[in-house]
Structures are given as C-alpha cells and as structure tokens.
Amino acid sequence: MHDPLEPTRFRPEWRTDHPVVGMVHLLPLPGAPPWSGDLQAVLRRAREDARILVDGGVDGVLVENFLDAPFHPEGVPPETVAAMTRAVLEVREITGELPVGVNVLRNDAHAALAVAAATGASFIRVNVHTGTMWTDQGPLVGRAHRTLRQRAALSLTCAVWADVHVKHAAPYPGVTLEESARDAWERGLADALVVSGMRTGEATDPERARAVRAGAPGAEVWVGSGALPESVADLLEVSDGIIVGSALERGGRAGAGVDSQRVGRFMEAVHSHRSS
After folding, report:
1. Residues in the chain where the model's pLDDT stays below 70
2. Under a CB-based contact definition with an 8 Å cutoff, are residues 100 and 63 in contact?
3. Which of 24, 97, 136, 227 lies at a C-alpha separation of 20 to 30 Å from 200?
4. Res 1: pLDDT
5. How far apart are CA 224 and CA 269, in angstroms?
C-alpha cells in the first residue's frame, strides 16, 4: 500500500543521467500583439527548431509561448491553448520517444495541463507553483492545490516542474531560496525544482542551485537559464539537468530560432562532462 506520507513523484524517462532539455520558443501565437496571422509559419518554425535540437542530441524539449509578451498573468485565452496544442503535437512528431514539456506563460498551469492531456506531454513547467512572486505582470500567486487536483482529475502522469524564485520576478523581502524550495517540494508536492538567473539568458549562479538543494535535499533540481558550453561542467555538478534556450539560438538570443552549430558546441561540452 502507498504510504501517504511519501507522495508519488512523477519523472519523465530520460535516456541518460544529467539530461539536457532544449527550448522551442514559439513564434507569437494568435491573439498576441506581434501575431503575424500565419499559424503555419509558427508550426513550421516549431518543427525546424525541434528537428535541430533532436539531431543535435538533446534529451528532451520544452515548448513555450515565449514571444507572446506582454503575457497574461495567469489564464491565457482559448486561442493560445489551441495553438500551443497544435505546436506541441507537431514537436512530438519530431521528438519521438524523447520527453516533451509545456510552459504556458506567464503562469497558466491549468492551460499547460490541458495541453499535456491532449498531446501526451511528459511534464509542465510552472513559474509560480507556491508562494507569491512580484513580476512585471503584477503579483503572481501559486496555485499548487488547484494544479495537482486538476492533474489527478485528468488522470495525468506528467510531472510538475516548479520554479523557485523564478526569473523576471522578486519574492517578498526576507523569503529565502531555501524556504521557498522546501515549500514547493514538501507542501506544493512539485516533482522537480527549477532554479535560474534573474532574467532570460542570465547565468544561474551555482550557489543558487546549492541553496535550493539545501532547502529540499530530496528534490530533483534543474538549472533553468544561462547555461553556456563553458559553464556546463560547473552547473551539472550542482544540478540534475539543464534547460537551455538562449545559448542554442541564433546570436544567443531567446526566440531567434535554434542554431545547429550552437547546439553542437553545447552538446559537445555536455558529452565531455559526462565522459569525464
């Protein structure tokens, strides 16, 4: 019988230790201010980026509506959910058995779970799962209670990855990384924790990862921003895996489209660390 004091944790099936998840930053979706009116262009770019990432050797892919800024604070409209579902299905055709995740910005875990239910995605990323963060969208409040109940109601086994002090945001004064990590893991029942730099593409200080690990010693910890070929070894020493976007894209700019040469250089550094 399952011990209720030991919550079930969901984890995608990775093909290696210290996996690398590459970002597919979608072009602006229907309804977003920069939307081009051409959904096929969005899907075509998503397929191209996914193909380059898979051919380059990443272990998983995370699909995100990164170019929909300015973001809805929480609930996105139906057209965003519909377009992201189409995009994730296209990506999954490319990735095969590799895990695929969903992040619906800025903080719509409900929509992410809906997309996962329709596409078979392996995990979702939630920017504010527990606690409150002050962001450029205003205060965002974690809805762990709703997210996990919705996942159970949908009979999903997709993992919930929770950011700890997510980038482009600030916690209440006095709230530490350790405390927030412990709450997300022990009370929010997240399946993995994500720690990042302060902004998109900004390096993650290894000490931040160590602080998250100290707050939640049993948690799986992922680095969520700013990884470079030069920093891979140090970051993998303090984490269980890396989510990488900007470093793999043209000019090192998030949303610019994946660059095969950058993917090659990054994964070469990853393989070098693994072999050592």
Report:
1. 1-4
2. yes
3. 97
4. 53
5. 17
How many Cβ atoms from other residues are within 10 Å of residue 174's Cβ?
A: 6
Q: What is the pTM of this model?
A: 0.96
Number of H helices, E strands in the chain: 8, 11
Q: Is there a contact between 269 and 229 (Cβ–Cβ < 8 Å)?
A: yes
In a domain, 136, yes or no: yes
Q: Is the dihedral of CA 261, 265, 266, 267 positive or negative?
A: positive
Q: Is the peptide bond before 250 cis (omega within 30 degrees of 0)?
A: no
- Decide if 260 is inside a domain: yes
d(CA 64, CA 84) in angstroms, rounded, equals 8
Cβ-based burial of 74 (10 A; exposed 0-12, middle 13-18, buried ≥19): middle
Q: What is the pLDDT of residue 6?
A: 81
Domain of 187 in residue numbering reads as 20-275
Give the CATH number for residue 72.
3.20.20.70
Q: Considering its fold, how many domains does the chain have in total?
A: 1
The answer to whether position 206 is within a domain reads yes
Both tokens of 140, joined, read: 């965002």
What are the b/e assignments for 136-164, b being 16+ CB within 10 Å? ebeebebbbeebbebbeeeebebbbbbbb
Residue 211 lies in a domain: yes
Single-letter residue type at 262: R
